[in-house]
Amino acid sequence: MSLRIEGISKTYANGVKALQNLSLNIGNNMFGLLGPNGAGKSTLMRTIATLQEPDQGAIWLDDINVLQNKDAVRRTLGYLPQEFGVYPKMSAVDMLNHLAVMKGITNAGERKDQVEALLRQTNLWDVRKKALSGYSGGMKQRFGIAQALLGKPRLIIVDEPTAGLDPAERNRFLNLLSSIGRDTVVILSTHIVGDVKELCPRMAIIAGGRVLLEGAPNEALSAIEGRIYCKQVNSQEEMAEVEQNFDMISTHMAGGAHQVRVYAETAPGEGFVQEPGDLEDVYFLNLKRHQTAKA
Ligand SMILES: Nc1ncnc2c1ncn2[C@@H]1O[C@H](COP(=O)(O)OP(=O)(O)OP(=O)(O)O)[C@@H](O)[C@H]1O
Hints:
Number of helices: 10
Pfam families: ABC_tran
Distance between the termini: 39 Å
Oligomer: single chain
Number of strands: 14
Family: Belongs to the ABC transporter superfamily.
Domain ABC transporter: 3-233
Bound molecules: adenosine-5'-triphosphate
Order of helices and strands: EEEHEEHEHHHEHEHEEHEHEEEH
GO molecular function: ATP binding
Keywords: ATP-binding, Nucleotide-binding, Transport
Strand content: 25-35%
Strand order of the largest sheet: 6-7-8-3-9-10
């Protein structure tokens, strides 16, 4: 299965250009859509999920014209939106049953089997009779995935699912996502680089409604290999000097001291130590280039 996004643009009534002629090719397996707040991720996710119209462009799911055959897409879509809405006093098992009927799983036996399998897969079996309103953040997100997987969708969209989860729950959630079949298109929208690093064989970085980079994380890392340098700086003046003279990517605190990371084609000089590149470097570098180009 493949999803082709061709030249999608969206300008909101207030003039914000959320998507600007954006094109992407997304195949089976997990695709990471990485971008800062306001990049246009949710707008794109809602558009693919047929909940919102773009001003221009086309989307194809294999040979289905998504914008013109919304019902066909909805039948094969699983969607976990950024805001999943109010969690009712209903139990997980009752709510899943209800949603399964809404999704057209009318055969009672099949529905029971699917609901049970999903509750087990998302590790919610033991709490299936508890009211959803009493679930923790991580449990709610796992329930969100369970409902998205109802009806065995071939296109799954999850919008910023790990924001606000503690490390153990985030881990559990990412493991769950990685267990989704490889013959499914899964789009994971996130501003957390680690989510993409851990799960996605392909990714895109978007900002300002445009694609800044598309490809495999490994290829992106190869492109910066041997060009990342780190240095400890001990004063604001030193930091300003590095910022002025080098292509600074980011600053981190390590052991109470500031470490700066820079991108350099050749060794930048005294005090700098070469470091292996990280996907965060790729991300920050692309965002920086985007900001500079805009200025
Ligand atoms: N309904 C709307 N009306 C007007 N502007 C909007 C609307 N929805 C989103 N925007 C604006 O469009 C831009 C893209 O927003 P979007 O929510 O798609 O980005 P995002 O990458 O998902 O960001 P976030 O992580 O903050 O949700 C932002 O500037 C946002 O303020």
